[in-house]
Amino acid sequence: MNSEIWFELADALKEPEDWNYRDDYLEAFVHPKTRIIPVESLFRPWSEGEKTELPFARQKGYLLSDRALHMRELLNQYGLEIPPEMQETPDHLIIELEFLGFLLANGKGEEAKAFVGEHLDWVPELVENARGKLPADNRYLKVLQEIEAKIKEYFA
Question: Contact, 102 vs 78, CB < 8 A?
């Protein structure tokens, strides 16, 4: 399987250098009414541990969940660093896609499949959220839809 597609999709989510896409970027990731935040923790219960007694532990919408800590550990295991600007979101979709590409580029297909099942099964919910906020012609909505389609195509 081609690992490059995952790096390309991750790059497509980053802030554009091309001003032609600037409005779509601002609409998708900055504007308060339409902003989407492609971070796994926000779509998961904050903790899935049985012994966690915090009142918000089972609620969604919080950063640095168990999944984020797991991503941080996975990246550490492979000697990969989280960019300084993303330290608080080690489970950002860009990082997860780049990690998937890394696994595939290094011949770790089984690990990649397990990773998708453990860490990218929230993408359909993200895409649905984006569809409800962004116009159909928004470039970043299209990228998210392509990510969802590629995950289904390669890992379903």
Answer: yes
